[in-house]
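Quick one, C-alpha cells below. Sequence please?
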C-alpha cells in the first residue's frame, strides 16, 4: 500500500469517525433537550399559579384520605413508601389547593416533624420539584431518604448531605418489578446542611 493510499484511507476513516461523533453528539444533545423539557415544562399550564401557591404556603386543610388519594395517582409508586391513610393522619400534610401536588412531614426520632416524605406531583404542571422541597424545608423538614439516581443531584444541590446508605435489598423486590423499571438503586439518607 502506498503512502498516498494510506493517507486517503486515514482521511476517510477520520471523516467517518467525525460524522459518527457528530451524529452521537447530535443524538445526545437532542436527548438532553427532551429530558430538560420534561423536567422544566416551562409552558405548563398554571405553573405560575402553582409556584405562587407553594411559595405562599396555600395548602388544603389536612385530610389524610384526600392526601392518600392524591398521592396514589403517581406513576412512580415504587419510589414512594406506601403509607396508609391512618399513617398519614399522624403526619403534617401539605396538599396544594386544587392540585395533586404535595408532601408530608413525619416525626423523626425525638426531633419532631422533621422528615420529608411522600413528595409528589401528579399534576400536568412540571418543573416544580425544587420549589416543593424548598417549601418542605421552610416548614421544618430536615431529613429525607430516597433511591439513588436522578434525585441524588437534586437533593445534593439543595444542601442535603448524605449521612447513611443502604445497599439495594432484592428481598423487597421479589418479582423484579422495581429493578426492571429503575435498576438496582441504593437507598440514601440525607440531612439538610442548615438543620440543627
Amino acid at each position: 500500500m502506498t503512502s498516498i493510499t494510506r493517507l486517503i484511507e486515514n482521511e476517510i476513516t477520520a471523516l467517518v469517525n467525525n460524522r459518527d461523533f457528530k451524529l452521537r453528539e447530535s443524538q445526545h444533545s437532542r436527548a438532553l433537550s427532551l429530558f430538560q423539557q420534561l423536567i422544566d415544562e416551562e409552558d405548563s399550564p398554571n405553573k405560575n399559579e402553582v409556584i405562587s401557591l407553594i411559595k405562599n404556603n396555600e395548602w388544603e386543610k389536612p385530610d389524610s384520605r384526600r392526601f392518600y388519594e392524591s398521592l396514589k395517582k403517581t406513576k412512580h409508586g415504587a419510589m414512594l413508601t406506601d403509607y396508609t391513610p391512618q399513617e398519614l393522619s399522624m403526619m403534617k400534610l401539605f396538599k396544594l389547593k386544587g392540585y395533586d401536588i404535595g408532601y408530608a412531614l413525619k416525626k423523626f426520632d425525638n426531633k419532631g416533624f422533621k422528615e420529608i416524605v411522600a413528595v409528589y406531583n401528579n399534576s400536568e404542571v412540571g418543573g416544580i420539584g425544587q420549589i416543593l422541597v424548598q417549601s418542605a424545608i421552610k416548614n421544618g423538614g430536615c431529613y429525607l431518604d430516597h433511591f439513588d439516581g436522578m434525585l441524588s443531584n437534586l437533593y445534593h444541590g439543595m444542601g442535603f448531605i448524605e449521612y447513611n446508605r443502604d445497599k439495594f435489598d432484592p428481598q423487597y423486590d421479589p418479582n423484579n418489578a422495581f429493578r426492571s423499571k429503575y435498576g438496582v438503586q441504593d437507598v440514601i439518607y440525607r440531612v439538610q446542611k442548615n438543620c440543627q
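The beta strands are 92-95, 101-107, 113-121, 143-147, 160-166, 187-192. The longest strand covers residues 113-121.
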